[in-house]
């Protein structure tokens, strides 16, 4: 699940950042750190559309043995990520299954991403001044 989802998720992340940074109106979001923070949050929200389903499938596969051993209701053994994905969709649907935890993921990673891009842009500007 991770091998398949990482490339598209990171492409959405960085492309989303650049597109958001370029499209934020200067009158609404002042240039500088506020623009980078807002664009970083938008990038995380977009990338979460790919990261969250990937994480849900990965976590189901990681915890399947524990669920089986504990006798949890509905516990299933998956042979591969595709089987876990199809089972998840059949039992819980897209919103209740694949995107379960999207809000929590954004709440955790959103602030970090905002700070990351503010720091990244500051470092980039500082390096450019030294050249």
TrEMBL record:
Name assigned to this protein: Mitochondrial carrier protein
Cited Gene3D superfamilies: Mitochondrial carrier domain
One Pfam family here: Mito_carr
Membrane topology of the entry: Multi-pass membrane protein
Signal peptide (residue range): none
One annotated GO molecular function: ferrous iron transmembrane transporter activity
One GO biological process term: iron import into the mitochondrion
Entry keyword Kinase: no
Record carries keyword Lyase: no
Solcar repeat copies, ranges: 31-126
Stated family: Belongs to the mitochondrial carrier (TC 2.A.29) family.
Localization in the cell: Mitochondrion membrane
UniProt keyword annotations, A-Z: Membrane, Mitochondrion, Transmembrane, Transmembrane helix, Transport
Primary subcellular site in the record, as a coarse category: mitochondrion
Originating species: Prasinoderma singulare
Entry's Gene Ontology cellular component terms: mitochondrial membrane
Matching PANTHER family: CARRIER PROTEIN, PUTATIVE-RELATED, MITOFERRIN-1-RELATED
Top-level taxon of the source organism: Eukaryota
């Amino acid at each position: 699940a991770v091998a398949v989802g990482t490339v598209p998720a990171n492409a959405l992340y960085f492309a989303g950042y650049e597109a958001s940074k370029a499209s934020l109106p200067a009158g609404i979001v002042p240039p500088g750190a506020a623009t980078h923070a807002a664009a970083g949050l938008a990038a995380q929200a977009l990338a979460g559309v790919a990261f969250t389903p990937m994480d849900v499938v990965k976590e189901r596969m990681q915890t399947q043995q524990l669920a089986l051993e504990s006798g949890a209701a509905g516990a299933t053994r998956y042979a591969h990520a595709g089987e876990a994905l199809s089972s998840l969709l059949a039992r819980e649907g897209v919103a209740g299954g694949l995107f379960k935890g999207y809000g929590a993921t954004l709440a955790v990673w959103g602030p970090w991403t905002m700070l990351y891009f503010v720091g990244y842009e500051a470092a980039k500007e500082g390096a450019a001044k030294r050249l």
